Amino acid sequence: MKLELSDLREVALEDASAFREHYRRFPPEHSDYLHGTMYTWRDYMRYFFTKTGEHLVITAEHDGRHYIRPPVGPYERDVFEEVIQLSRSEGWEPVISMIGTRTIRWMQKEFPDLTYEPHRDYFEYVYLSRDLVELPGKDHLKVRNYLNKFRKNNEHTIEEISKDNVHEVREFLIEWCEKKGCRDDPLLLHERQANFHALEDMFPLGLEGLMIRVNGEAEAFSMYEEMSREMAVVHHEKANPDIVGIYQAINNETARHLVERYRFINREADMGVEGLRRAKERYRPHHLLEIHHAR
């Protein structure tokens, strides 16, 4: 069957279980493939998909530009050829985007006529869950110091985000954005909206989350979901910048909550933001999930 643009439809909330079921058989190589990512970031980038046989085909559109991913499923040349042909016929560039490491190794052999280039800003940082809990060695000394200061100086409690307290997280996010000037920063503004979408639909999306209370008030939260049987991905994490060590605390508490279920925690990409890159490198990732484009 020839793949046509009309075969694809926009990703919707009710597609959550279909994506989860497919990814149990064929785990995605990057968090941008996850339904939770695509649905909550829909105001920034619109996502479309179709199921063809054992494959998911996903496209994205932002500011009039379209991107198509490699099909998620078994490595079958004819299906990849259909994706490449659709992209070329539509004049899309890159021909295929967001190609993970396993897939690019196969594609380089099967499609040597394409040029492959890394996209460093979208490399994702993956950590051993145990390392984020224990913060071992000299490499984590500064992180441990900040964490200890928070625990020493603040009366706090940890609780899971539930239907009973999710409204408090939303109120905290509004205050956080006011402090950070979200409305003056286009990327922060889109991230703010993605956070709100995640909070509004976190339970049907299958997202989970933690909240830290300081003196009874919500002052930090994280939201995450399963990416594979051995990896969770932290989609959203925010904390009151006026409280020393609270970012280190929400990071550590999230890892403690996940360590028995997942060997790895994916803390997503740095988007080329230098300060964010330094912060993610400071935690000493176990490895990076590399991503490439094909031209």
Summarize the topology.
Layout: E1 9-10, H1 16-25, H2 35-40, E2 46-52, E3 55-62, E4 65-68, H3 77-90, E5 96-100, H4 101-110, E6 116-118, E7 124-128, H5 129-134, H6 141-153, E8 156-160, H7 166-180, H8 186-200, H9 202-205, E9 208-214, E10 217-228, E11 231-239, H10 246-258, E12 264-269, H11 274-282, E13 287-289, E14 291-294
Parallel strand pairs: 11-12
Antiparallel strand pairs: 1-2, 2-3, 3-4, 5-14, 6-14, 7-12, 7-13, 8-9, 9-10, 10-11
Helix pairs in contact: 6-10, 7-8
Mean pLDDT, to the nearest integer, reads 96
Largest sheet: 7 strands, mixed
Order of helices and strands: EHHEEEHEHEEHHEHHHEEEHEHEE
User: What share of the residues does DSSP label as strand, in percent?
Assistant: 25-35%
Supply the CATH class of the largest domain.
Answer: Alpha Beta
Number of domains: 2
User: What's the total number of strands?
Assistant: 14
